Amino acid sequence: MMNKPFLYRAAIVGLGQVGLLFDSDPKRSGVWTHFTAYEKLSDRFQLVAACDPLAERCLLALNRKPDLRIYKDLSTMMSNESLDIVSLCTPVEYHAEQIIFCSGKVRAVICEKPLGVDSNECKNAVEACEKAGSVLAVNYYKRYDGVVPLVKTILSEEMLGTIRSATMYYSGPLDAVCSHAVDLLLFLLGPIMLKEVCRLSEDRISAILTFGREGMALLHCTGPREDLIFELDIIGSDGRVRILDNANRYERYRFAPSQHYGGYRELFPCSDPESELNPRFLPLFHEVADILDGQSRTLTASGRSALDTQSILNILKGAQIIER
Predict the structure, then answer these.
(1) 0.90 exceeded by pTM
(2) How far apart are CA 126 and CA 213, in angstroms?
(3) CATH of the domain spanning 145-278
(4) 230 vs 33, 138, 220, CA distance in Å?
(5) What residue segments make up the domains of the chain, in order of their start?
(6) 8-139 domain in CATH 3.30.420.360?
(7) Residue 33 neighbours by CB distance under 10 Å
(8) What is the pLDDT of residues 258-273, one digit of tens each?
(9) Does pLDDT of 20 surpass 70?
(10) Beta strand extents in the chain (DSSP E only)
C-alpha cells in the first residue's frame, strides 16, 4: 500500500491580480495565479488560508474554496495557523517586511516579484530567511515561461557562439514588467552591468548594459502595458535567437557564407522542431516542494538571484526624468 503523499499547508497573502483575480479574465489560459497553482498541485500542497483586507476578494476566494479560512491581515493569520508555506502577493512596498516577518515561522516563502523597494531592505529579507532556514523563492516566472528554457539550453550549449549583443523590448511599468525584463537578461546572459539610462517618464526607460567580455545589451520600454510587447533578440558569433510573442515562440538563425557577397556571412533560418511550451508558474512551486521534500537544493528563481535584479531595478528607478 502506497503512503499518502505529504501535503504542505499553504496560505496566500493578498488576493489581488496575481493572488486570485487574473483567473477572472476569460481570455487567459493556463496558470496565472497562486490560487490556481495550489489547486493544480493539490498532490503536493493544501491551500488552507488566505488574507486580504477587501471583503469582496475574500468572498471570491470562498466561492472557489468554501473551506478556506479567511483573515484580514497577515499577523492574525500567522497567529492562528500552522503553515509550511506562505505566498506573498501583496504590493511591492510590503514584500521585504513581510518576508522578514514570515522567516522562521514557515518553511518556505514564495514572494511575488520584485523582491522589494530598497536594496538594503531586500538584502535583510534574504539574509533573514537564510538565517532562519526558510526557503525564499521569488516568482520571476519568465525564467520558466514558454520557450525560455529552450533558449537557455541553446545559449548554455554555445549554439550561438560568443554572445555579442542583446535587445530586450517590453511594455509596462518598472516593477510589474521591467523587473521581468531585467531578470531575464540576467538569467540568460549572466552578470550584467548598467552603463547608461534614459528616462523620459515614470516608466518610460531605455538603458545600455554590458555583459561578458564584449557583450552589449539594450533594454527598451516601448509603451504602456496594454500594448503588449515582450521580446528578446540575442546575436552571437555563430547565429541569432529571438524570443517572440511574450515567450510563446522563438526563431533561431545561423551564420553561413553569403549567397550574394564574397567574404561575408549572412543569417539563415534553422529548421528546429516545434517545441512544447513550458508552463510559467508551476515549475517554481514544484521546486519549492522538491526542496522541502529533500529531493533538491536548487531554486531557479531564488531570493539571492532576485537581489541581482533588484540592484539594477533600483538604479533605473533612481534615474532622473529628462526634462523635454
Answers:
(1) yes
(2) 30
(3) 3.30.360.10
(4) 20, 20, 10
(5) 8-139, 145-278
(6) no
(7) 23
(8) 999 999 999 999 988 8
(9) yes
(10) 8-13, 45-51, 69-71, 85-88, 108-111, 135-138, 163-170, 192-199, 205-211, 215-221, 230-236, 239-244, 249-257, 265-269
